[in-house]
Amino acid sequence: MKALVYHGPGQKSWDDVADPRIVDDTDAIIGVDATTICGTDLHILKGDLPDITSGRVLGHEAVGTVEAVGSAVTTVRPGDRVVVSCISACGRCRYCREAGYGQCLGGGGWILGHKIDGTQAEFVRVPFADTSTYLIPAGLDDEAVLMLSDILPTGYEVGVVNGGIRAGDTVAIVGAGPIGLSAIMSARLYSPSHIIAIDLADTRLEAAKQFGADVTVNPARQDPAQIIAGFTDGLGADVAIEAVGLSDTFEMCTRLVRPGGRVANVGVHGKPATLHLEDLWTRNVTITTGLVDTWSTPTLLKLLRTGQLTPQRFITHRFALDQVIDAYEVFSRAGDTGALKVLLHK
């Protein structure tokens, strides 16, 4: 089969590789009907995740058709359409029993495109298929469901839920890329009084308005703290969500949040970030971090079916799977191309 293979920082190619096969009796082989590129893939190519070895097939998001299953798989069968979760779950360890699938001790967690070959390929082996894939309800299309593989659960769980957004809150979201936009979309479910999106790219700020931001701020032209102060009697945001993964944006969130407020870090940090405890220790600020667990996927599927979420709006560019190199070029220059998510289809 063909797949997108990582060959070290800055190096990737569309190569012939061996077809995946059933290794464990809990595995499924999925024919990839649609996949996409994540910001984490760009971090890998930058060398921010040095534990990923040369020769790895990248990608951890997919919608596909079950081709074969191991003897212990009971919830899916060949011919089923499924969404492949970015997180694999053994379903038995301490963390999986607590729905903390991202910390799975039984061989799961974030492994696709990381510790084992991923989804930017014609076929993928998915371990723990019973607990790592979800049947797609009739009537839902690939484009909408694909966004439930990673970005919507990530923005919702690590941003909105970890941030403890409540009705009436003022929410600052730093970074209006796909993860920031997913946080905006899912934050609206909790009826905050204001959602303020902050980004240096005007194209992304325009997208933030379309996804539900009440106010947009480009910090090159306006002071976000001053704007937020105007909505909060000078106190600051109740919740600040970091959706970039840079030290500067993390520090911005800690400055924007009010005393007693909450900072939810979602961004992937490839370098150290400074924690200014000399300023924060008296302010009762709660800071959360997290890798997505995908416990929310069934709930998000329900909201998708009822039309309360419309994640197909994330897709701005479409490519055939064998055009993946071109897709990476477009996605990596999102500030110029306006790319949010690129769809790679069979």
UniProtKB/TrEMBL annotation:
SUPFAM superfamilies: GroES-like (SSF50129), NAD(P)-binding Rossmann-fold domains (SSF51735). Residues 8-344 form the Enoyl reductase (ER) domain. Its EC number is 1.1.1.-. Its cofactor is Zn(2+). GO terms for molecular function: oxidoreductase activity; zinc ion binding. It holds the Pfam family ADH_N. Belongs to the zinc-containing alcohol dehydrogenase family. This is Alcohol dehydrogenase. It is an enzyme of class 1 (oxidoreductase).
